[in-house]
Amino acid sequence: MTTAPTGPEAGQLIRVLVVDDQELVRAGFCVILEAADGITVVGEAGNGTAAVAAAATLAPDVVLMDIRMPGMDGLEATRLITAGRPLAGPRVVMLTTFDLDDYVYAALRGGACGFLLKDAPRHDLLAAVRAAAAGDGVLAPSVTRLVIEAFARRPPAALTAPSRLASLTARERDILLLIARGRNNAEIAADLVVSEATVKTHIGHLLAKLGLRDRVQAVILAYESGLLSPGGLDG
Known about the structure:
Strand content: 5-15%
Distance between the termini: 35 Å
Number of domains: 2
Shape: globular
CATH architecture of the largest domain: 3-Layer(aba) Sandwich
Order of helices and strands: EHEHEHEHEHHHHHH
CATH superfamily of the largest domain: Response regulator
CATH class of the largest domain: Alpha Beta
Radius of gyration: 17 Å
CATH topology of the largest domain: Rossmann fold
Number of helices: 10
Largest sheet: 5 strands, parallel
């Protein structure tokens, strides 16, 4: 059976590739990352073409990817880097702003595991890199709502066959629904009156069964399969 991604082995440095067309922005990210424990920058790239080549040769654990760049943009580069490797390969975190909803949707749909504001605090940057390397999606509950609302604004399309969810147990379906509503593991554990460790185990199982990289893709699948509709979101 396919297993969920586990990220770097304990004690190994998280290898990061920084991609942005502005040299000063790249330099700023590199300084922050290199100063952090357990993280090393293995390379930089100034456009999507260079990013795809660097990802292939440097084998980073995490790619920080700008969206708008000359030549090949970050969306196409992300698709190429993650293509054919739903549970393996580099984890791509997009560098963006919240006024790019359509870009964010396309990036997540194209294989990115989440996104980060370019002006995010140092702590958020490091937390995002570590979360991505560990196989988690970098998407806060408030942002989950924005993504689902972006789905709602799009023209109706054919839904993913509900049968794709048939392999899930009733408890796994419950957890998938709560993930899609933006609940974190602690909140899911409280809702279901189970331990966080049990929640993590169930999440690992459902991601593996569905061939998903992380909970971000789980949110997308929950909407596309009809398990959740925008009207079904709550606080």
